[in-house]
């Protein structure tokens, strides 16, 4: 099957500065894909990350590796083979926790694979040693029980087998010594990396304190800026109110100017009217004279009217007397008519009787 991905996430990749061994150097400009790979043929695990065509992480996981969470969204591990420390910055705490859990799981799997490999090597070594111990006894038995020709025939192949077994054991011992030196080297490298990590952790702690102070200063500055912004907003509101008042005042000034023009026009009209006042006064004097003459004429007419009123009253009295006399006459006339009517009725009765 080859090498297959078993877990994939995205993170910002960093590497420890090789010069100072303290500061982090970004390995990618943005968040990239970081994956766990399993090689079934070698029974090994690797963390691989590629930015475009550049491989920025190629770390084989060993049982001695440790993934450390240095903050809520940042974690790191040391790779002695790559002689560096990798750091990953995640977008959330959940992503960091999942990656750390997967690292521990892969680490345990790598440890089991190493233990199985050691057990297999020890089994093969013990089997070889037992074969080596049994070979002389077999040879001894053949030397006692067999003929000389049989001894020669048996000794030559057994010597060859022993020689090959010895060479294999020497090779296994050399390989074991090599692995021991390699593990000692890795252990020393891990110790150095742990020392660097301790230094980096201390520096990170110092940086955290510094960042806390900077954050506190930024908060204070932010509060000050917010206060200034509030003041500026209040000033802006005052300016807007002043603008509104100025606009209202401009409108009022325009209204007053219009009223002033109307008043000036009215004053001009009054001035024109004042110019004809003497003429009007003269006309008024003439009218007064005429009015006095009319009043005198009115008095004369009133006297005449009073005489006429007396005549009218006398006439009305005469008319009243005439009405009384006319009524009396009418009453007499009505009596005469009634008498005449009675006479006619009497005549008609007489005519009937005859």
Automatic annotation (TrEMBL):
Feature: compositional bias, Basic and acidic residues: 110-122
Pfam families named among the record's database cross-references: WH1
Listed GO CC annotations: cytoplasm; postsynaptic density
Keyword Magnesium included in the entry's annotation: no
Main location: cytoplasm
Keywords: Coiled coil, Cytoplasm, Synapse
Entry's family note: Belongs to the Homer family.
Stretches with biased composition (Polar residues): 123-146
Compartments in which it is found: Cytoplasm; Postsynaptic density
Name this polypeptide is given: WH1 domain-containing protein
Species in which this protein is naturally found: Monopterus albus (Swamp eel)
